[in-house]
Amino acid sequence: MRSKKRYLLVEVVGPAGDVSRDVMEDTVSRAVSMLGGWIALAEAELRVLKPRGWTGRFIARCSLRQMPTVLLALTLIREIEGRPVAVLVTRSSGTIKKLLG
Amino acid sequence: MRKYVDAWIRVRHVSLAEALIRRAAMLGFSAVAIEASEIDWGAVKKAASEVGVEAYIRRTISPSSVREMYHQLSEERWRYDFIAVETDQRDLLMAAARDTRVDAVVASLPSLPRIDRHIIAVTNNAIEVCLSHILERGFAAYRRAKHSIQVALRKRIKLVISSGAGDEYALRRPIQLAAIAWASGASLSKALDAVSETPLRVLEDNRARREGRLDAQGVWRVVEE
Prior knowledge:
The complex is a heterodimer of chains A (101) and B (225).
Chain A: E1 5-13, H1 21-44, E2 47-49, E3 57-63, H2 67-76, E4 79-80, E5 83-84, E6 86-93, H3 96-100
Antiparallel strand pairs in A: 1-3, 1-6, 2-3, 4-5
Helix pairs in contact in A: 1-2
Chain B: E1 4-10, H1 14-27, E2 29-35, H2 41-51, E3 54-61, H3 66-76, E4 82-85, H4 90-98, E5 104-106, H5 117-122, E6 126-130, H6 131-137, H7 139-154, E7 159-162, H8 174-182, H9 188-193, H10 197-210
Parallel strand pairs in B: 1-2, 2-3, 3-4, 4-5, 5-6, 6-7
Helix pairs in contact in B: 1-2, 6-7
């Protein structure tokens, strides 16, 4: 059965500059696995999207079940590639269309 | 609609106050409890009113003995809207948890003694979990915070979640603060209460007490106009 998904609109604030999608996905994955372990990471079905033309903003997709863990993992991110940042979750929704609407 | 409160913002220098308050407002907080020196309070309050955020004055005390805590409380209680106690001593934790002059006991420090049934039995005040402790001290603080949240939920003790931010990078959105409790097993509405209703009620009641609109027994003074 397909699991329900949640999409989070994420903003990276700080002197880290423009962070690439791969770096962001790696950072979030590490934060989730640090908090909930491999099981939470696997259940989260995490994916980070960066639409063309976006700077410092991402869409993080996760399973509904692991949303609290992913949200907390994003909250606890303090640095990306050694530079201090704050990761802010601006909105969340069940579809990308509503998230951006 | 919920009104969100960040119950602990640390202003170390008045020059940082405006940026911190402006950022808190931008993140969705409509009230903030600020820990600042009394000299800076005027400037802090002015900055908050310019941004349209309700500012409350907060004090966190770290006494070394129960006697010192009682002395500090008798001196300072009604000069502040919110008083929290930080401690790593069991007898102090117990005294702070039951003293009606204390609003919250900071329960996310790794050095906090274990909250056992004896402490739970006398607890009247809120348990406060601070995000900056988790950001700065990592796993040990998170483990302590999670345990404190679970005790609060199980024993129906009031729970407050605050950022404890000293700079802009430690501030987060209300839902992100609530995620600390949500990920520890609380329902989303209970987690959101910890950053809205619970601290707001304490702050509003204390402000009313300080202004003479509410007496010590909790009776509101109604003035006919």
